[in-house]
Amino acid sequence: MFNQFRNKIPLSDEKWIEYTNLFNCIEVPAKTTLLEEGEISKKLFIIEKGCIRVWFNNNGKDLTTQFFFENQSVASIESFIKKMPSPVVVETIEPSVLWWIHKNDLDKILEEIKEIPALRDRLIDMLFQRTFDYMKYFFSFIKDSPTHRYLNLIKERPQIIQRVPQHYIASYLGVTTVHLSRIKSKLLHNK
Question: What is the layout of strands, in order, in the sheet containing 89-92?
Answer without folding.
Answer: 33-35, 89-92, 52-58, 61-68
